Amino acid sequence: MAKRLVILGGGESGVGAAILGKQRGYDVFVSDGGALKDVYRKTLAEQGIEFEEGKHTEEKILSADEVMKSPGIPEKNEMVKKIRAKGIPVISEIELAYRYKGNSKIVAITGSNGKSTTTSLIYHICKLAGMDCALVGNIGYSFARQVAEDPKDLYVAEISSFQLDDIQTFRADVALLLNITEDHLDRYNYQFENYIKSKFRITENQTAGDYFIYCEDDEVIMAHLKSISITSNPLPFTMKQEVKKGAYIKGDQMMLRVQEERVSMSIYDFALKGKHNQYNTMAAGIAAATLGIRKEKIREAVKTFESLEHRMEHVATVRGVEFINDSKATNVNSTWYALESMNKPTILILGGVDKGNDYTLIEDLVKEKVKAIVCMGTDNQKIHEAFGSTVAKIVDTATAKDAVTTAFELAGKGDVVLLSPACASFDLFKNYEDRGKQFKEAVNDL
C-alpha cells in the first residue's frame, strides 16, 4: 500500500512537495487552513492531487504516515500539536527533495541576513561557469518541484531556520552560515539559543568530504563553534586577519584560497557595494571555489552581478531626492546594514509586524544619519518609544502611498528616502515583495 503523505500548507513549498510525492508513488493529501492561491489550486487539480482549503480535517490528516509541514506553520499550531502527540514523523520540504535528488550536489545557504543576495550571487557564478544548476528554496522556487520536474546536477538553495527545523537526513555538500542575529524569536520561545541551534543544523549531517563556510567575525557563530564538533572542512571568511584557507580582505584586496589556486581581487571591482556585501561576496567566492570553478569565472561573475529587487534597490531620484527600496529588510539587523551604507541625510520608512525587535541596535546610526522617520504599520508604538527622543519628526502613515508622499514632503534636495522596514510585512501587505512594489509605484506616481 502506498505511504500516505499529508502536506500542511498549500503554498510554493507545499505544492512542490505534493508534486514530488505523487511522482514518487505516495498517496498525497494537501490541507491548508486558509485559501489557496489560484495558481496552486489549479496545479493541484491538474495533477489530480486531493486537497482541502479553509480547514484542516483531523481524521484525514492524522491518518498520515508522514507529514510535510510548510515552513510558515509554527509548532504551536493546534494541528501540529496533534500530529506530534500521535507520533507521526514531521519533515520539511528540503528533506523530501533531498531524498530524491539522486547524485546531485547541494550548496545550502543560511544566516539571518544576506541569504538571498549570497544565494543569487553563487547561482550567477555557477551559471556563468556553464554549470547545470538551479536556484531553489526560500528564494521563491520549490526545491521539491525542481527535483520532480527539471532535475539538475547542482542545487543552490537558500534555506531558512524553519526549513532546517524538520530535517532528518538532509545533507549539504557545501553549507554556508553567513551570520546569526536575533530574528524570528517568536518562533523559538524567545530563546536565542534555540534559534542558533536551528541555524547550525545546516552542518549536522555533513561528512569529511563536505565544506562548511562561515563568518569568523561573527561572535555568535564563533562562540557556538566551541561547543560542537564539525566533521566537514571548515572555510572561514573574515576582515580581521589572514586565513590559510577560506577568504579574507586586507586593505582593498580580497584573497581567496580553497585548494591550490588562489584568487585575488580588488573590492572596488565588486558589483555589490557596502561592507556587508563584501562578506556576502567572500562567502560566494569560497563556495564557487569548492565547486572547482576557475578564478577568471569567479572574478567575472562578481563584477557583473546585478543586485536583487527589494534589496537596496535604487528606484528613482525625484527633484533631487533619491528613493531606495530595501523592503526585504524584515529585521533590525538588515536595516542596520542599509543605514550603515547611507552617506546622505536619510528619511527612514520603518514598521510592519514586529518580531520582538530590539531597536537599540540601530539607535546610533539613526541618531547620526536619520532626519525623520515615517512609520508604515498598524502598530507603531515601539518605534515611537525607541526613537521619540532622538528623531525630531516621527509620522504615522497607513499606506505605501501615504508613506512616500509624507517622506517626500519631509525630504530636501540631496536627501535620500529609504524604505527599510525592519519588520515583516503581513499587516498591510501580502509580503515584502508586495510592499516593495507598492512603494515603487508610489514613487513613480510622485
Could you explain the architecture of this structure?
By secondary structure, the chain is α/β, with parallel strands linked by helices. The protein has helices at about 10-25, 40-45, 60, 80-85, 95-100, 115-130, 145-150, 160-165, 190-200, 220-225, 275-290, 295-305, 330-340, 365-370, 380-385, 400-410, 430-445, and strands at about 5-10, 25-30, 50-55, 65-70, 90, 105-110, 135, 155-160, 175, 210-215, 235-240, 245-250, 255, 260-265, 315-320, 320-325, 345-350, 370-375, 395, 415-420. The chain has a 9-stranded mixed beta sheet with strand order 7-8-6-9-10-11-12-13-14, with helices on one face. Strands 15-16-20-17-18-19 form a 6-stranded mixed beta sheet, with helices on both faces. The chain has a 5-stranded parallel beta sheet with strand order 3-2-1-4-5. Helix 16 (about 400-410) crosses helix 17 (about 430-445). Its main location: cytoplasm.
Features:
22% strand; Rossmann fold; nine-stranded mixed β-sheet; six-stranded mixed β-sheet; single chain; 20 strands; alpha/beta; Protein-Tyrosine Phosphatase, Chain A; 446 residues; 35% helix
By secondary-structure content and strand pairing, the structural class works out as: alpha/beta
Task: Please mark out the parts with pLDDT under 50 across 5 or more consecutive residues, or reply none.
Answer: none
Q: Tell me the number of structural domains.
A: 3
The CATH class label of the largest domain is Alpha Beta
Instruction: Compute the average pLDDT.
Output: 92
Q: Give the full name of the CATH homologous superfamily of the largest domain.
A: Mur-like, catalytic domain
Strand content: 15-25%
Query: Which word captures the global form?
Result: globular
Arrangement of strands in the largest sheet: 7-8-6-9-10-11-12-13-14
Say what the CATH topology of the largest domain is: UDP-N-acetylmuramoyl-L-alanine:D-glutamate ligase
**Largest sheet, if any?**
9 strands, mixed
Termini separation: 62 Å
Helix content: 25-40%
Radius of gyration: 22 Å
The CATH architecture of the largest domain comes to 3-Layer(aba) Sandwich
How many helix segments?
Answer: 17
**E-strand count:** 20
Catalytic activity: UDP-N-acetyl-alpha-D-muramoyl-L-alanine + D-glutamate + ATP = UDP-N-acetyl-alpha-D-muramoyl-L-alanyl-D-glutamate + ADP + phosphate + H(+)
EC number: 6.3.2.9
Domain Mur ligase C-terminal: 310-423
Function: Cell wall formation. Catalyzes the addition of glutamate to the nucleotide precursor UDP-N-acetylmuramoyl-L-alanine (UMA).
